[in-house]
Each structure stands twice: as structure tokens, then as C-alpha cells.
Design a protein that fits this description.
It is built from 12 helices and 11 strands. It has 316 residues and is α/β, with parallel strands linked by helices. The strands form 2 sheets. The chain has a 9-stranded mixed sheet. Strands 2-6 form a two-stranded antiparallel sheet. Helix 4 runs parallel beside helix 5 and helix 5 crosses helix 7. It binds iron/sulfur cluster. Iron/sulfur cluster binds next to helix 12. The site of iron/sulfur cluster has 12 residues, from helix 12.
Length: 316
């Protein structure tokens, strides 16, 4: 199953997994390797979306070295059950000219589910052909507006018409190439800036997407981006277990491993894949300590987690 936070079919599963009483006994164990690898190809972005705390990014910007990328993929592809592999992080993945090569490489190593989240502003016809040809399995596009005014004031520095046309071209090209992949998730985030016109968003895209190919629309909700924003009121108590250390590994473009993708500045580092293997980090003392703390709902030692609204509610 392709776990993508925000997808309807995974919401129930994920909210169940956050329930301490139900899953406590299981938190004693973890899989031999992560079931989801989140590999940041770059932390550069061409947009300044209002909900994204990009202005707080103090970490060095760059692209993951292809040799390091191949090492990670090789290390996680040995098992029968291969991880869902996200090829993006705190940046726009299509700024990376090596993206099609990375997808191709992951597929060559037998990774079944490759996945990116993009703003699609750079999804030219040529890029569409390349990522389809490389074998990308799934692509989520954040499209947070319903017209020029609402889109351009939310997804700053991008242009409604350009992106809208890119996505329409992608759908046409995929059809011409007689391919069903990548399946498309078009995501909307109702906010004050875009006037929360969810019905208009549906009316705009429903006639265009191909549900038979597995395309769908997804409406998500604002969160606090690990303390980078303050949209949701923080509950006083931590009430749920964050399952990320049991399920996934988040790797920054420079090879450092962090607790999750909310740690955009690399504050909670658990290892470095330049000098360690995925397995060494996954079974090593740093992640073991995190799991021990999280299962007891102790997040005090983790500054990003302390500001996370996600563990202060049971649902998503
Ligand atoms: S910030 Fe911490 S608690 Fe929140 S989702 Fe990430 S790892 Fe879990």
C-alpha cells in the first residue's frame, strides 16, 4: 500500500496507528528496514507558498549526489518488500535535472512505488515525457487556488495559467503515450488566502483527471509545519504516538537522517548515510532512543516535535 499522508484511504489507518492504547504492544518492534523512504533530492524551491515556512530555512541548499542516492536505493532494495520511495523533501523536486535518472535508477533496483510531490510549475511537456518514461508511479501536485487571483496569492512566484496548462498537457501526454502512470493526486488546501473554494476546485479538475487511471483529488488541512507556522491551536497534552520512527526514514539531500520531513532545518539528526548504512541508522542507538521516548509520549528532548501539533490530536 502506498502510504501518502493526505490520501483518503490511508487517513483512517494512520489515525489508528496514532492511538497509543491500540498499538502500544506493537511499538516494541520495528521492521527490518523502513517501509517508507523519504529521500530529499533538493531543498531548493522556486515558489514561496504562504503556508510553507521556507523563510526559516537556514540549512545549506543543494542537490543529493547521485552516487549517494544509488547507495541508499541499493541498500533498501534487497528485501522482498521494498519501501515506498519518496523522491522529494523540503523543496521542488523538478528543479533537479537528475530526477528522471533517479526514478529510472530506483525502478531498475525494483522499487515498486516511486512518488513525488511537486508544484508542477516546471512540468513542461519534455519533463512530463521524461518522468512518464522513467516509470514514476505516483505524483501529487499541490494546486492551491481556483483562479489566477487565489492561486497566485497563495503559491507566490508561480503562475496559475502556466501550471494549469502544464497539468493539462501532462494528462494529454500520458494518454498519448498510452500509460497509466504516474497516477495523479491533485491536492487542494483550503486557506484564507485562496478563499477556501473547495467546490470550485473540484469543478475545475473533475472533468480533466482520469479516474480510471487512478487519478484523484485530495483536499487536505493546514498543519503547523513542525512549529514553522501557527495555524492550529496547540493542545496542552501530547495524546498520540508519532509512528514515523517505526515506519519511515527521512533523508536530507546531504545524507543526514532526521526524525521526519517536518525537521526542515536538520535539528533532530539521527545519523549520516554518507558514513553509515540505512540498516545501521535504522537499528542504531539514536533511533532506538527516539522510539523509546515516543512510545512513552515523551517528546521533550526534541525541539521540532515539541512544536508539532500532529501528536496533540488523535486524528490526522
Ligand atoms: S515533528 Fe516529531 S512528532 Fe511531529 S511528525 Fe515529525 S517526528 Fe513526529
Amino acid at each position: 500500500m502506498n502510504l501518502n499522508i493526505g490520501d483518503k484511504k490511508t487517513k483512517l489507518l494512520l489515525s489508528l496507528a496514532k492511538t497509543p492504547l491500540l498499538f502500544y504492544p506493537r511499538y516494541k518492534y520495528h521492521l527490518p528496514l523502513p517501509s517508507m523512504m523519504m529521500i530529499e533530492n533538493t531543498n531548493l524551491c522556486n515558489a514561496e507558498c504562504v503556508m510553507c515556512p521556507r523563510e526559516l530555512l537556514s540549512r545549506k541548499r543543494g542537490f543529493m549526489d547521485l552516487g549517494l542516492f544509488e547507495k541508499l536505493i541499493r541498500e533498501v532494495s534487497g528485501l522482498k518488500r521494498k519501501p515506498v520511495t519518496h523522491l522529494h523533501g523540503f523543496g521542488e523536486p523538478m528543479l533537479d535535472k537528475l530526477l528522471p535518472e533517479r526514478i529510472r535508477l530506483a525502478k531498475a533496483y525494483g522499487i515498486k512505488h516511486t512518488y513525488i510531490v511537486s508544484n508542477a510549475s516546471l512540468l513542461s511537456s519534455e519533463t512530463s515525457r521524461k518522468i512518464i518514461d522513467a516509470g514514476l508511479d505516483k505524483m501529487k501536485i499541490s494546486f492551491y487556488g481556483t483562479d489566477e487571483e487565489s492561486y497566485n496569492t497563495t503559491m507566490k512566484r508561480l503562475d496559475f495559467e502556466v501550471t494549469f496548462q502544464n497539468i493539462k498537457d501532462f494528462l494529454r501526454i500520458r494518454k498519448e503515450m498510452k500509460r497509466r502512470h504516474p497516477r495523479l493526486i491533485l491536492q487542494y488546501l483550503p486557506t484564507e488566502a485562496n478563499h477556501a473554494r473547495t467546490n470550485e476546485f473540484r469543478a475545475l479538475w473533475e472533468p480533466l483527471i482520469d479516474e480510471k487511471a487512478g487519478d484523484c483529488l485530495n483536499v487536505t488541512a493546514l498543519h503547523n509545519y513542525g512549529g514553522g507556522r501557527g495555524y492550529n491551536q496547540m493542545g496542552k497534552k501530547i495524546v498520540s504516538v508519532c509512528y514515523f520512527p517505526w515506519a519511515s526514514m527521512s533523508v536530507l539531500w546531504d545524507g543526514r537522517v532526521v526524525t521526519c520531513c517536518m525537521d526542515s532545518n536538520g535539528v533532530q539528526v539521527l545519523g549520516d548515510l554518507n558514513s553509515q548504512t540505512v540498516k545501521e541508522v535504522w537499528t542504531g542507538p539514536a533511533l532506538t532512543d527516539v522510539r523509546d521516548d515516543f512510545r512513552k509520549l515523551q517528546y521533550d528532548a526534541y525541539p521540532v516535535c515539541r512544536s508539532c501539533d500532529w501528536v496533540r490530536r488523535r486524528g490526522l
